[in-house]
Every structure is written in structure tokens, then in C-alpha cells.
């Protein structure tokens, strides 16, 4: 049953993104930014963690989880270091994922000939 809920919740998040593309004619950048902000807002109200508990990977894999990670990192570090912790916490939590994307993107660009 866990797999079914993960599939449904992840699918709903993807459908929302696709509707933003098709109906509202938003660019990929606008769509991604909006989904990150939605995830951050839900995390700020404590709702995204409940969604993760319910849907597992269906909530942790989509881009909305990045917004959740930013807020969680900011909140954790703000308790330790105050206002400076808000800024550093966001980068501390998400830096490994961002670094991996940059490194693997560079490796892919070196291994494969880009079109264009």
C-alpha cells in the first residue's frame, strides 16, 4: 500500500507541474520555482513532513521536497545560530544534492557530445 500512495502522491505533484506548463503556459523555470516555493510553504506550516510520512518517496523525490529541505535546514540552524543560521542552514542541507547535480552534469557533458 505504501508504494501505491507514493505513486499517487508523486503523480499528483507531477500532474500539477504539467498543468502549470500546459494550462498556465509557465516556463520550466517558473514552474520549478513555484513548486519549490509550494514545498517550502507546506514545510513552514509543518504539513510537508506529514506528507512524507504518508507518501514516502512520492513526496521526497519531486522538486517540492527541495523547498522542504531548504526550510528544514533553515529552521534547524536558526535554533543554533540565529539569523545567520537561517542562511547557512539552507546551504548546508542542500549542498550535497546541488554539488552532485553540478558534478554529474559536467561528467555527462564531457562524456557525451551535446547537440546544438
From TrEMBL:
Entries under NCBIfam families matching the protein: spore_V_AE
Source species, domain of life: Bacteria
This protein's name: Stage V sporulation protein AE
UniProt cross-references to PANTHER family, sorted A to Z: STAGE V SPORULATION PROTEIN AC-RELATED, STAGE V SPORULATION PROTEIN AEB
Residue intervals passing through the bilayer: 6-24, 31-48, 83-112
Keywords: Membrane, Transmembrane, Transmembrane helix
Alphabetical list of Pfam families matching this protein: SpoVAC_SpoVAEB
Amino acid at each position: 500500500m505504501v508504494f501505491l500512495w507514493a505513486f499517487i502522491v508523486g503523480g499528483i505533484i507531477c500532474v500539477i507541474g504539467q498543468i502549470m506548463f500546459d494550462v498556465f503556459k509557465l516556463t520550466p523555470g517558473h514552474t520549478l520555482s513555484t513548486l519549490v516555493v509550494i514545498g517550502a510553504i507546506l514545510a513552514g506550516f509543518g504539513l510537508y513532513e506529514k506528507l512524507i510520512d504518508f507518501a514516502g518517496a512520492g513526496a521526497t523525490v519531486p522538486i517540492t521536497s527541495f523547498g522542504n529541505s531548504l526550510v528544514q535546514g533553515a529552521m534547524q540552524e536558526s535554533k543554533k545560530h540565529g539569523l545567520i543560521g537561517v542562511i547557512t542552514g539552507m546551504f548546508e542541507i542542500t549542498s550535497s544534492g546541488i554539488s552532485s547535480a553540478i558534478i554529474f552534469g559536467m561528467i555527462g557533458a564531457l562524456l557525451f557530445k551535446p547537440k546544438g
